[in-house]
């Protein structure tokens, strides 16, 4: 069985040499995971906190235009897969 100290050393080794911007993001993820495991914050804020990690959607097109563009980009396939 691996001890806690070994895991901590492995994590620190992975963090060495990473740019500060990446470390800030990793710190946010670690805090989110800790809160998830130990329930420091209410569930009402969990979605908000998760979305804060991902950033905001940056698209100035109206929603209907975005939907139409998604459907227009899809290509129909005539291939059928057999379940046999």
Quick tags:
84 residues; mainly alpha; 4 helices; extended
Concise account of the structure shown:
With 84 residues, the protein is mainly alpha-helical. It contains 4 helices and no strands.
Describe this structure in words.
The chain is mainly α and 84 residues long. It has one domain (4-73). 61% of the residues lie in helices and 0% in strands. It contains four helices and no strands. It has helices at residues 4-15, 20-38, 46-54, 63-73. Helix 2 packs antiparallel against helix 3 (46-54). The longest helix has 19 residues, at 20-38. The protein is extended. The mean pLDDT is 81.
Poorly predicted runs are none
Helix content class: 55-70%
Radius of gyration: 21 Å
User: In percent, how much strand structure appears in the residues?
Assistant: under 5%
Shape: extended
- State the secondary-structure class: mainly alpha
Regarding quaternary structure, what we see is single chain
Give the strand tally.
0
